[in-house]
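To: structure subgroup
Subject: Chain for Friday's discussion

All,

I'm putting the inputs and outputs inline so they're searchable in the archive.
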Amino acid sequence: MAKVFCVLSGKGGVGKSTFCANIGKALSENKKVLLIDGDISFRSLDMLLSVDSMVVFDWSDVIFGRCVKEKARLFASEKLHLLASPLSLSDSFSKSDFEHLLSEYNEMYDYIFIDAPAGFGKFAEIYAQSADEIIVIATPDDISLRAAYFVGERLTEMGIDENKMRFVLNKTDYRQMRRGKQRNLDTAVDKTYLRLLGVVPNDKSLVFSGENGIYSASRRVNEAFTNISERILGKDIKLYY
């Protein structure tokens, strides 16, 4: 049965979808991984994985019986698959609908990652409640870190155990940190009250990933995601790049 992760952020632009694409790539070296784009109307993972031209069905088609589960999947690689987000969804959509979707794929994969929309609306809440663990993404600036803290508070109010919440600090630049232009790692963790899962360096080449493919990330970024993937697999790996 797959372990399900919900990937959240308190604000947009922190690299949540890029995180999902890269962690999916890293884990799929040895495991079967399904990414679910949960950002209704604003899907992006299909472009980040260069499979946007293949989209015919989305995951709502599986829920409402418009296609079988096999036809909805997009193959980014042999072991990395994607379910595209619906462009719209009925107001009647519920947690039980989404849990039905997960049950359709649970036995087919080792890991499932849900790319939630930024903020904490209805959909993010449903995804979080349906997941085994939560990964909160933030960048090392005060606004993003405060938003990550609020996400953690909201999850706690929902009754989610804090041990199921992890934190990834994205778009870091150690030179900027040393100059005091970015919050350092200890301060970032202290501001969110979340357990650190990993640190990802800033990589301007990822801005162009939609055109060139997510797999063009730099060596340092690939190493960071390899380390995070191995921590997810239960290995004792250093927290830095």
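Points worth raising on Friday:
Residues 142-157 form the longest helix (16 residues).
The two ends are 30 Å apart (CA to CA).

D.
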